[in-house]
Amino acid sequence: MHLFTDIVSLGHRCRTTRQLRNHFGTEAAYPFDWWISSMKGLSSLLADWNVDRLFHPDELAEFRVEGRIFFVRQRRYGLKLFHDFPMQAAVMQEDWRDHIDEAKSKTLHLMRKFDGLNQQGRRILFIREVGGMDKRPEFWARALKTAVRAHVPNAKSSFVMISPNGLAIDGWTSLTIDDPVEEPWTGTDEIWRGALASLDYALAP
């Protein structure tokens, strides 16, 4: 059994975070948990790491379907922000821009919490699920790993890559999870539970 002090989701979506929390028994939150992201976008964000640019009004654009706002897109990093602003009945409220400062404050707290992992004695498991936005995943997985390690050089870090076809990337443990269902948003618990259990990883007591 491999024990870790911290489990951190690197996306690409909220399903990843929810299933990791269910399996490892943790509710610890970090910046990337609820966004839809690409590895390229996260690598760029980690290299920049500026909450003012992240939530600058000029960098945020609405994505609408039939007049309703489904999410806000962060232009610079290509992030889809589904949970950073108030919603009602799965639709983002029209006054979301009035809540930018609130979203910025919450994210800044999580960014500082992420940087706080940079301590000797920490054993961190970083887990990324390949998503539809990931182009050239082998290249950007290496860039993402480098960007993450630059923030936590004093900790011992391990990396797992989840994909439907067992994508093998140097420096990442490959884990195959093929769960294409769209509803419920949390996915098929049995598939995730069985695959994650095969890693023989656990959160240290």
Question: What does this protein structure show overall?
Answer:
The protein has helices at about 15-25, 40-50, 50-55, 100-115, 135-150, 190-195; strands at about 1-5, 5-10, 35, 60-65, 70-75, 80, 85-90, 90, 125-130, 155-165, 175, 200-205. The chain is of the alpha/beta class and about 200 residues long. The protein has 2 domains: about 1-45 and about 115-205, Rossmann fold (3-Layer(aba) Sandwich), CATH 3.40.50; about 50-105, no CATH class. The strands form 4 sheets. The chain has a 4-stranded parallel sheet with strand order 2-9-10-11, with helices on one face. Strand 9 (about 125-130), helix 5 (about 135-150) and strand 10 form a beta-alpha-beta unit. Helix 2 runs parallel beside helix 5 (about 135-150). It is globular, with a radius of gyration of 17 Å. The model has no long low-confidence stretch (mean pLDDT about 95).
